[in-house]
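Suppose you are handed only these lines of text.
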Amino acid sequence: LGSLKHHECEAILVTCSENVRYLSGFTGEDSWLVVAPGRATLVTDSRFAEEAERACTACEIHVRKGALAAETAGLLRIGGCAVGFEAADLSVKTVDDIRGLLKKRISLKATTGVVEALRVIKDDVEIAAVKAAIRCAERAFRTALSEVRSDITESAFAAALEYHMRLLGAAGAAFPTIVAADPDSSLPHAKPGNARICGAASFLVDWGARVDGYNSDLTRVISTGTVSPRMSRVCRTVRAAQKAAIKAVKPGVSAAGVDALARKVITDAGFGEFYGHGLGHGVGLAVHEGPALSPRAAGRLRAGMIVTVEPGIYLPGEGGVRIEDMVLVTSRGAEVLTHVAREPGRLAAAVRPQEARRGR
Ligand code: ZN
Ligand code: ZN
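From them, the structure of the protein bound to zinc ion can be written out as follows.
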């Protein structure tokens, strides 16, 4: 937590649950961590006391009886004069409450990204955890595809996918699964509805699993019908953009530069105005975390980062294509962690619609 000095704080109150987990190993809820030089205290309650004892071997555990803010404020005197708080996580009201309870000589200072800056680099245990979340998502996807029946709707496919992820050990979906048959697939974050996916020329699935706290995030487009020549060109362009970006991934390259490579492929093909989002994001304890790959990103890639590479082209009223893979930045370049087939036609071969059984 070296950047605490940069924020002129002697201690930090960590309230974001992913950050609490990252620093302490504690996976329960409603618990905060006070980190001061040489000392860390987890403030939890009786529901989580046993788990805290087991998980947090390196910090003191304070089992509160009163309100979280009040008891934490009481502990903050160990922090000295300036205590940072996570401005992106705490509400203005909670900060005001804590300030009202603090001794006069202690001040609360807003900080951002202190723990998040550490989380961008994954260690071997974290890389293995992300790989397990990917394996789970990919196996569930293959199973759900093989069970597709000709009358299945977007929301039923999303439910089947999430069910199989749970059966395979996920705590749940990493985020609400997106299943969008064309033309809805032109909405980058479409909600699954009652449209049938098999009658559509293609459908887009964006999904991920959360396993042991770590997430995966993938997108595929599956063609079950006849794809127009223009949409075929869209598919080829998106894949070419993705390949160009993945090839460039290595330690030291700028995150904005990787984004620009993919953007150029799409712009040169004449689809620039139909690609509005950033190229990718970090994935770990949160589905969306640092580093961002976007035109506005400031940083450079470093070994140990795990990012998505997910260019897309969205033609309003026609359909959209996004291909999303996860890559690990290694000293040799990008290691692609996701393996499920990317070609819409090849994926369609996995779909053998079984006729809906009528009666028994
Ligand atoms: Zn996604
Ligand atoms: Zn994503």
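What can we learn from it? The longest strand covers residues 39-44. Residues 206, 217, 219, 324 surround zinc ion (ligand 1) (CB under 6 Å).
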